[in-house]
Amino acid sequence: MKEQTDANTTRKNKEEKKASSKVIRYEDENFVDSTKPVWNYSIFYDNDIQTFQNGTHYSLYNKFGSRPLEVLEQKGFYFAVWAPNATQVSVIGNFNNWSAGSHILFPRLEKSGIWEGFIPGIQKGELYKYHIIGFEGRVTEKGDPFANYWEVRPATSTITWQMEYEWKDKGWMKDRIKKNALDAPWSVYEVHLASWMRPENHEESYNNYFQIAELLVPYVKENGFTHVELMPVMEHPFDGSWGYQCTGFFAPTSRFGEPEGLMHLIDKLHQADIGVILDWVPSHFPYDAHGLYMFDGTHTYEYADMRKGFHPDWNSYIFNYKRGEVKSFLISSARFWFEYFHIDGIRVDAVSSMLKLDYSREEGEWEPNEFGGNGNLEAIAFIKDLNQTIYRDFPDVQTIAEESTDWPGITKPTFADGIGFGMKWMMGWMHDTLNYFKVDPLYRKDYQDKLTFSMMYYYDENFMLPLSHDEVVHGKSPMLYKMPGDEWQKFAHLRTLYTYMWTHPGAKLLFMGNEFGQTSEWNYKTELNWSLLQFEPHSGMLSCVRDLNRILKVSPALFCNQFNMDGFEWVDVNHRDESVIIYKRKGKKSSDDLLIILNLTPVPRMDWEIEVQGKSFTREIFNSDSTKYWGSGTVYNPAVRKMVLNREEKKYKIMVNLPALSGIILK
After folding, report:
1. Is 30's pLDDT higher than 60?
2. Rounded CA gap, 496 and 502, in Å?
3. To 10 degrees, the CA torsion angle through 466, 467, 472, 478?
4. 10 Å Cβ neighbour count for 646?
5. How far apart are CA 277 and CA 338, in angstroms?
6. With contact defined as beta carbons under 8 Å apart, do 277 and 188 qualify?
7. CB-based burial of residue 348 (10 Å sphere; 0-12 exposed, 13-18 middle, 19+ buried)?
């Protein structure tokens, strides 16, 4: 990937050098008038304009925004912004005492809506905004949509910057096609960087990216997760949005330092053999005055029709996916993070709200598409192009959809009339599983279908099993307190749930704090309650998750067939009264197969008989009731007894001791 980035940088430098060899003129001028505060200068070519307008320019970050250049032996910064309904655009900042009209940009003659110019003498690190006189004389002052660096909120200016970083993750980038493949183990640790750990436990206290790397990387490595997913790190004005109301689609948040700091964090994760997924939000944006909303006095980035352009759930605005320039902007944003930050995947937020015109809208509040349906055809086309572009340009990564409906083909290839994502969050599994485990064990025999139903539709998509941040906020309670019973039973239930999750087909995602049994709901204003790890039940829970991650990574049966029918087989779902469920996970070789037995009541069962076919299972490799995990440790299987039922047909009977409220894995 570094080689690819270097190649892109070389190409960009060549373009800039070529552009600086002559001045792009818009009037009959044969020279640059260096006495003007803004020089008439461009790095755009005709093809750039055409593809930008057609919605097919996917590297706009190499054209728009502010960038350092040297023109006619003068150093400064070039600025370019899209404001199609503006009558004047000027750059304001500390360098001109925020004086509108001092540094007016030039509009391109082909009416592309692009305003640009070179300002000599501007330095890296200057605060600036665009002062826009727009439609009907409306005045707006906007941050640069393509800026790489913003002021720390509540300040709202963008900052001239040039990202410079020497990557050291060549080994990861060379081999990551194997680590990010669909037949590789996926155990994702979801993290909100601000509240994972703080230097002081209050809202305004942040570790910087370098400090986070020192703390987070060894923790994730020690506990065996294969990837981290970072809740949105793109710049956003309001902490309470958790990053999902974004204003800087090309900028890491400055809460934790300079952009290179995020590069360092990702680099360190890669060097520790850990992949990085970023949450990315192309579904909506906030109405903050310095952001994209009404950018040039009109609905520039958002739909003008508020039946499509306003999101009632989040009080935010929806991108106009029909507009080519907006589509180019969004896909360029996604590509930017892959190209410059070496990320391994994006998790696209709120895909359902993009696909459906009637999402969270009552009858009469939305208009059907041209065929009378509820699909947003423009958004569907955008998402397909997004996925096609990412997999074309970065074939060793994944795109992941947070999509909560039964919309078909989310993870089917676009050439097969699918939407084209690599994976999709399995929200149905999450709801059914939590609903089952909340039930008193006495009544679970009547709810067994909650656990078994997932396999009825599992093969429709490539699923990721999420126990995410959304499940531990807004009165839903932490994972531990969703479980019934006394303290011992709550921990036993949760360890069993995780055993089921890690041995169910599909990728896994666990939100921070869930791995050690956080006892309070997630609060973005404070850090996790790390002091809990001094207590045996919580340290034992973390050990349980750590061992499940270890087993996942060394057991091909748990991942090599995780998205096809060859990887799973029900063995026994007929003992509803006892709430014992048995299934097999299968690898490429039968010797890799694993047998999973869940005893979902508080009753231990000795000498439980199981008929299996193929190879016999003789060794217990995991027991969630181990004393190591704060289990009872009284029921286990030092040796699994077996009886041959039919040698030719390879049928066996094995006898296993089942601890109460537990899951065991046999090999």
Report:
1. no
2. 10
3. 170
4. 9
5. 10
6. yes
7. buried
Q: CA angle 191-197-200, nearest 5°?
A: 150
Q: What percent of the chain has pLDDT over 90?
A: 89
pLDDT on residue 618 = 86
Query: DSSP assignment, residue 108?
Result: P
Kindly state the average pLDDT of the residues 28-56.
79
Write down the residue that tokens 């310095």 correspond to: 290
Q: Could you list the active site residues? A: 349, 402
Looking at residue 135, the DSSP 8-state letter turns out to be G
CA dihedral 328, 333, 336, 337 (to 10 degrees): -150
The rounded distance, in Å, linking the Cα atoms of 587 and 594 is 8
CA neighbor of 560 nearest in space, from 113, 178, 84, 10: 178
**Torsion angle of C-alpha atoms 326, 248, 283, 63, degrees rounded to 10:** 20
pTM for the full model? 0.93
Cβ atoms 149, 258 nearer than 8 A? yes
User: Domains in the chain and their CATH numbers?
Assistant: 2-159 (2.60.40.10), 227-259+273-425 (3.20.20.80), 566-666 (2.60.40.1180)
Q: What mean pLDDT comes out for the span 389-399?
A: 98
Mean pLDDT of the chain: 93
Residue 224's φ and ψ, nearest 5 degrees, are 85, 10
Rounded Cα gap, residues 613 and 208, in angstroms: 55
State the amino acid at position 509 in one-letter form: L
Euclidean distance between CA atoms 351 and 364, whole angstroms: 22
State mean pLDDT over 257-270: 98
Rounded to whole angstroms, how far apart are CA atoms 582 and 593? 13
Residue 36 pLDDT: 64
Digit-coded pLDDT (tens) for 330-340: 999 999 999 99
In Å, how far are 121, 247, 515, 656 from 258, measured between CA atoms? 22, 17, 30, 56
Tokens of 540: 């034992």
Residue 548 CA to residue 554 CA, distance in Å, equals 10
Backbone angle region of 498, left / alpha / beta, with phi > 0 → left and psi within -120 to 50 → alpha: alpha
More confident residue, 108 or 263: 263
Distance CA 224, CA 554 (A): 11
Of 654, 658, 556, residue with least CA distance to 613: 654
What is residue 13's predicted lDDT score, i.e. its pLDDT?
45
